[in-house]
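Treating backbone geometry as a discrete language has practical consequences that deserve illustration. Part of our work consisted of pairing the sequence of a single chain with a tokenised description of its backbone. What the numbers capture is local backbone geometry rather than side-chain detail. For completeness, the protein is quoted in full, as a sequence line and a line of structure tokens:
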Amino acid sequence: MLRSLYTASSGMKTQQFHLDTIANNLANVNTTGFKKNMVNFQDLLYQQLRIPTEQKPTGIDVGTGVRVAATLTNFLQGILEETGNPLDMAIEGTGFFKIQLPDGQIGYTRNGSFRLDAEGYLVNSDGYRVLDEGDSEIELGENIREVIIDENGQITVIDDEGDYNEVAILGLTRFANPGGLEKKGSSIFLPTPASGEPQDGTAGEEGFGLIRQNFLESSNVQVVEEMVKMITAQRVYEINSKMIQTSDEILGITNNLRR
């Protein structure tokens, strides 16, 4: 009877983790460039009470519960929403923008909500500078009348005198296994041995998406889908709690047996 208690408790723990993941997805439903997480479960070791033999081709075994095997990031393309801001950019297809982090590392993001800092550099919402195809910071300069960014990432600025200046080409990066990237927060990812080495390129090249100026990529979280998952997780959690109650009642009956 104790086995059922521990088995059911493992189910409650995993469903609590599942609910935590769903809550984070729903909390980021309006986060630009956010990619939702999914939980994979795996059954635990089985206790073999009888091993199959030639005489008895079927054995007897009983499971000991469930555990969280992995959390997977779904990199499905989010909807592109027009903002009208010329420094907002979205990647239509595969790729990540490159960001220079304060510790010297290069971060990767799908959040193309960029701005200019006081020195005229292109930065993200946290003030981290955006990098071009050669991993150099992108300086747009001052006295800018207009910024033009084509689908291949070529950035051209028009100054107050009407002169056109090609400033830089946005750098994009892709990974063999983007699901292996480490989530740093602020919609920034870091490479790991599981993700593979960064493969740098530019928009429009084979295997890379296109840049869409004046657009941002919305979160790929589907509220209805997450709500259905939440209801399912809640019911599974409830069923496991009832299993613990039932096991406890049976133990109580056993303890109260009289000759």
